[in-house]
Amino acid sequence: MKHFALKSLTFAVAGLMAAGTALAAEQFIPIPSYRVGPYASGGAKYYGGMIDYINYVNMKEGGVGGVKLTYEECETEYKNDRGVECYERLKKKGEAGASAFNFMSTGITYATMDRAAADKIPLMTIGFGRADAKDGSVFPYVFPLVTSYWSQATAKIQFIGQRLGGMDKLKGKKIVNLYHGSAYGKETLPVLDAMAKKHGFELVNIEVPAPGTEQQSQWLEVRRQKPDFVILRSWGVMTPAAIKAAAKVGYPRDKIVAVWWGGSEEDVVPAGEAAKGYIAGAFAADGKNFPLIQEIEKTVYGAGKGNLSDKTAIGTVNYNRGIVGGIMMVEAIRVAQGKFGKKALNGDEVRWGLENLNLSQDRLKTLGVANMIPAVKTSCANHEGSGYTRFMQWDGKAWKPVSNWIAPDNAVLDPLIKASATKYAQEKNIKPRDCSKEQ
Amino acid sequence: MIYRESGQFKTSYQNDSVIFPIKQDRMFIFALLALAAFVVPMFASEYMLSGILIPFLVLSLAALGLNILTGYAGLLSLGSAAFMAVGAFATYNFLVRVPGMPLLLALVLGGLCAAAVGILFGLPSLRIKGFYLAAATLAAQFFVEWVLTKFSWFTNHSASGVISSPPLEVFGIALDTPVSKYLFTLAVVVVLALAAKNLVRSSTGRAWMAVRDMDVAAEVIGIPILKTKLLAFAISSFYFGIAGALYAFILLGTVDAQAFDLHRSFQILFMIIIGGVGSILGSFLGAAFIVLLPIVLNLLGQLLHGIVSTQFLSNLEMMIFGGLIIFFLIVEPLGLAKMWQITKEKLRLWPFPH
User: Fold this and answer.
1) A113 belongs to a structural domain
2) B190/chain A closest Cα distance in angstroms
3) Taking CB atoms and an 8 Å cut-off, how many pairs form between chains A and B?
4) Residues of chain B whose pLDDT is less than 70?
5) Minimal Cα–Cα distance from A70 to chain B, Å?
6) Checking CA distances to A179, which of A26, B187, B267, B303 falls within 20 to 30 Å?
């Protein structure tokens, strides 16, 4: 009797194990992080947020649709050639290859764009560029989700208009665009020119040679110009240097409107007292008063699986942006599973998921991040999904929102995007897809 | 025993002056080239080709250029990346603005443009030497980077100031797969490395070495200093230009002027310091060390995934890399090429060392 029970128990266990391994599909998510180098503190928090969200989904629901999420990190050091090497290393990992790449670097995104299209793996460029990739017919594999640089540039002008009391008040005013002397910095010049023509304000472009630690002469020029507002298109060390230089020449910081890359704790804390009143854009709200963030702190960090070494960074701007990155990835996989089935999906299938996202505020509320980002609805013709930007102000201790979600000015943007995308398609011999034919 | 040199007699002056006088060395090099050209493309993964071999080849070409300038001619230069940028952007403009331009011709013309800029920034070398010349070439680095960012003509008026490679093809074969890109890069690098080796063994090379050792004495015995120094700048900038064009088009595909910043110049300088100044082999060894070692450390770090935090791993990688540089420079200040040379000398006598 005992012998028979033992034998049947062994067979039962073996059978369960075999069944278990047959069902255990895994979805691989590559994490091309940068934890070393000049942008390390932001990168560590961003990718920490993404990894925390992936672990949270695994712990809470056992993955997406029963498919466990796996990930592997690769250090890019924010360098283009390391980014390409990480892309090549991770693209075939996992059962069906990498789901999507999220480099958080314009340079690496540009460097891998052609390869990704050839390898059929989507690139998520949440909040940055290329801005003309909103047109999914020419860029089927690039997704500038939530908002892009160009949308944000139009939102900055509209915010300045709001501060002045109306868009008609912009006429005759002077706005200085202080930009980082790199591809990233120059990207918004055509959009700001178009907005200047439309609203009748004078735009003065002043370049700060990379990396931007020395800005004395540029800010003396700003003082000479006496602009009504300064748009700061900075990144990394340029931001605190700009804030300190502005304080030195006596330019009021609440008249500085910065891009979201210059709007995190890493940017304002080094500038100290000088940063009070400084305004920056945001596509993801910061703070811990979102049910999801609190849940993650309780479950993931409670179990000792949290990725951040410093728990006080939970809820900072870059951490929340990382959570948003994780949410986009997971929701795309979920949507794609709805069409292709609950299995390990390849890059092309995840691409379909990214192209058919419908994150309404209701869905965001279910996820526990209501109003952290605007509602995002993507389609073939609109890879951006929303384009809304918000603005927040640093009061010395925390960021406080100072505007609602501002819509992009599509009347200005659409012709620019179309022209730029068409030029790209011509240069690269790409035949644009017909969005009306696809579902 | 490995180097059985008995019976290897040279019976003509030509035989005596070949690049690899020992038969075993010749066989080894031919086997290596055959392996690289035929076996590697068949068996290597895409990651190996695109992520490891192509970066190694392209940057070893750049290191070769700097070795010609600094190692053989003794002219310290910190503007290497600027000349790479000139080559890349010039090649791009030739390809995009002149319809029907063949890729090889565009590469050569890009290299010649870089050579012209190199001559321009090499003119101070006639009056200043050593570290002061390094400062003058630093001016080249910053100036070229600024010009390429400021004037949008160079990037064909692209909104974000990046240049993107048009579809490439050579002799009718499209360069769109990692294998074709790898073979093209390998061919270019082998041809140029052979040219460099022959150049440094010729009277030009000897003139450079004379200038390096003491330029006043070289001038006294009749070596034309102006021509020699400017030729060194021109030829090394040609190499930088080709390396820059390959970096932009074959390796990355899309590049902006910031990819050729001061960090890149320093990286190439470190490659020749670690590899061995004044040695062709040293360029390749140094490039392998600087380009591949961080990747190897990152891959090894993956084995510790989960045990150690990734933050700590990334920083540990940098620390170990720095430590290895210090270690190698203490053990052999003349570089990895000197270590290889000592090893070869010992191997020639093995198993009877003395």
Assistant:
1) yes
2) 22
3) 116
4) 306, 353-354
5) 13
6) B267
**Residue A18 has what pLDDT?**
46
A250 and A203 co-located in one domain: yes
Give the per-residue pLDDT at A106.
Answer: 84
Instruction: Specify whether the CB–CB gap between B67 and B205 falls below 8 A.
Output: no
What residues in B contact A182, CB-CB < 8 Å?
149, 161, 256-258
Check whether residue A222 and residue A308 sit in a common domain.
Answer: no
| CA atoms of A2 and A348, how far apart (whole Å) | 53
The verdict on A269 and A160 lying in the same domain is: yes
Complex ipTM value = 0.84
Give how far B84 is from chain A: nearest CA, Å.
15
Residue A78 confidence (pLDDT): 86
A271, A292: one domain = no
The number of domains in chain A is 2
Residues A131 and A209 in one domain: no
| Å between A109 CA and nearest CA of chain B | 9
Q: Which residues in chain A are contacts of B315 at CB distance < 8 A?
A: 35-36
When pLDDT is cut at 50, 70 and 90, the band that residue A439 belongs to is: low
First-last CA distance in chain A: 62
Residue type, A273: E
Q: Do A264 and A397 have their domain in common?
A: yes
Question: How is chain B split into domains, by residue range?
Answer: 40-261
Q: CATH number of the domain that A218 lies in?
A: 3.40.50.2300
Q: Report if residue A437 sits inside a domain.
A: no
Query: Is B254 in CB contact (< 8 Å) with chain A?
Result: yes
Instruction: Return the amino acid letter for B286.
Output: G
This prediction's pTM:
0.87
A278-313 per-residue burial string, b: 16 or more CB within 10 A, e: under 16 = bbbbbbbbbeeebebbeebbebbbeeeebbbeeeeb
CA atoms within 13 A on the CB side of B192: 31
Residues 176-215 of B with CB under 8 A from A: 176
Of A110, A189, A309, the CB nearest to B309: A309
Give which of A34, A52, A73 to mutate to test B binding, by max B Cβ within 10 Å. Answer: A73
Q: Which domain holds residue A162?
A: 150-282+392-417
